[in-house]
Amino acid sequence: MNFRYLPNKGAMPPCIAPKSGESAHRFWLDSTPARRFLRHNIAAILGAIMLGACGLAAGQANLKASDFQRLSPPRPVATGDRIEVIEFFYYGCPVCYEFQPHLSRWLVQGPDRVSIRRVPTLPSEGSEGLDGWVRFARLYYTLEALGQIARLHWPIYDNFHFDGVRLNDEKVMVEWVSKNGIDRDKFLAIYRSPAIQAKLDEVRKLLLAYDVRSVPSMVIDGKYLSTARMAGGTRQLIRAVDNLVRQARKERPKERPN
Predict the structure, then answer these.
(1) Which of 30, 37, 207, 230 is a Cys-bridge partner for 5, taking CB atoms 3.0 to 4.6 Å apart?
(2) What is the pLDDT of residues 55-89, one digit of tens each?
(3) Dihedral (CA of 105, 36, 217, 150) sign
(4) DSSP label at residue 73
């Protein structure tokens, strides 16, 4: 899903099909028959993803220059000896939704000493549909503040894309979180708080700092950026991330023995 973040001007293009080879992912996932198929075959799909994870190492030699962009100068990281991985995402993006099982499995089976950070993206001020993006970003940071992201991150994607629950509508969102065991008043107090607004202001700075133009986008250790479009698909993206994490670790200064 492509967009261009330009402060205070420009418009967000609609969710467009990526380059050749990816469009089937977007339109297939966004169809009602696909939703039914995925729901009834989720166990088999996850099994295939598990097997696919075994191919990550085999895919290391296949990393191409076009699969990623080197950030120059490198951006600072604050994760100590862990490799920082930032996911820029949007709950309303079907490609982000498709990417989540690959990312979740990789976080379990991938390299050790990795720190993941998720950033819900926002388009430019004045863009069409901006309010929905802002509501989803507020939802993410509110659930994070409540310690509920681990439990509800995937259900947000699933309920929005599979079940058509319009979670980018504030009234529907509040009803949904209440049904999921979160106090309505407490949720709204945080959702509308200055602290959450500060988070959104930080998001805008990060989008500019990393020149993020599409979602999902992955930044590895402040040095590399890769997207589903660059890599050629969501499965290829997680392979690129795995390779770039290993490359970033090789480039880290060797720790001196005590």
Answers:
(1) 207
(2) 444 444 578 999 999 999 999 998 889 999 999 99
(3) negative
(4) S
**For the purposes of burial, counting CB atoms within 10 Å of the CB of 66, is it exposed (0-12), middle (13-18) or buried (19 or more)?**
exposed
- Residue 13: which of 215, 232, 196 has the closest Cα? 215
Question: Residue 137's closest CA among 155, 116, 123, 151?
Answer: 123
Rounded-to-integer distance, Cα 158 and Cα 176, Å: 13
- Single pTM value for the model: 0.78
Name the E strands within 93-136: 114-120
Instruction: Report yes or no: 225 and 65 within 8 Å, Cβ to Cβ.
Output: no
Residue 204's CB: how many other CB atoms inside 10 A? Answer: 15
Both tokens of 30, joined, read 């966004």
| Cα atoms in the 13 Å half-sphere on the side-chain side of 247 | 18
pLDDT tens profile 211-255: 999 999 999 999 999 999 999 999 999 999 999 999 999 998 865
Domains of the chain and any CATH numbers:
23-251 (3.40.30.10)
The reported pLDDT for the residue numbered 184 is 98
pLDDT reported for residue 33: 41
Between CA 115 and CA 123, with CA 118 as vertex, the angle to 5 degrees is 150
Structure tokens at 234: 């969501």
Q: Are 213 and 3 in contact (CB under 8 A)?
A: yes
Encoded tokens for 185: 């008043």
> By the 8 A CB rule, do 145 and 196 touch?
yes
Alpha-carbon gap, residue 87 to 226, rounded angstroms:
10
Residue closest to 221 by CA, chosen among 91, 43, 71: 71
Q: Cis link prior to 73 (omega < 30° from 0)?
A: yes
231 phi, psi to nearest 5 deg: -75, -25
